[in-house]
Amino acid sequence: MKRQRAVSVELTTSGPPRRVIGISRVTVPVSIVEDDASIRQILTEWINRAPGFHCESVHDCAESALARLPAEKPGIVLVDINLPGQTGIECVRRLKPVMNGAQFVMLTVYEDSAHIFDALKAGASGYLLKRTPCDELIASLHQVREGGSPMTSFIARKVVQSFHKTEPEKTANAVGLSPREREVLELLARGYFYKEITEALSLSISTVNTHIRRIYEKLHVHSRAQAVAKLAEMPARK
Q: Which residues contact 205 (CB under 8 A, 6 or more apart)?
């Protein structure tokens, strides 16, 4: 018998999601990895009603996603954590290396730091809670396609709070970041887009790109989410 789960996704009835101004008309395929059939249906409806997106496929377990997603080639994948069999985090960890063009966003009920950072380290680009309303979820999809890392505000606060914890010593990967690179990385962690970083720090876009490339090289990472996870392990700046 299928286990009972609380369904915390709230389907609004106020019409289609708000249109986001300035978004490309290219339609992005989105896949869903979620074992609850009612949640899959709600998410499918939301995505298919949203301009710029369509639901490419749905999967009720990690094993199905692992077998089929690489061939389906979605641009964005929404992944639950608590799946039967392998977890959603393990699913992302295994799919990320073979689906470099896809962005993975966790959509879960888990709010604890361990799940958050395990998901980011596995390669997730964002972390949303299932109580996220429709318009915010669609806005998050737009943020992902623009290169952002959306997080529910509560989750973002947990990430920021982790920066303030003093560790006894720096991790080996943290050694070598300049003060400016650290500033850029902290803004990335707060969800700033590259253009917003240029304005906040009065830098050119080419300089910001150079800083981010060097940050990735020094931390031995390949994405914003992985860099944010590394930042959480570093001591707070004095």
A: 194, 195, 198
Provide the residue range defining the domain that includes 206: 168-232
Do residues 74 and 175 share a domain? no
pTM: 0.62
Distance (Å, whole) CA 9 – CA 186: 30
Sign of the dihedral defined by the CA atoms of residues 219, 31, 18, 156, in that order:
negative
Residues 51 and 136 in one domain: yes
In a domain, 238, yes or no: no
Whole-number Å distance between alpha carbons of 153 and 159: 10
Q: How far apart are CA 127 and CA 152, in angstroms?
A: 7
The answer on 178 and 64 residing in a single domain is no
Query: What would the pLDDT profile of 91-141 be if each residue is shown by its tens digit?
Result: 999 999 999 889 999 999 988 888 888 898 899 989 999 989 999 999 999
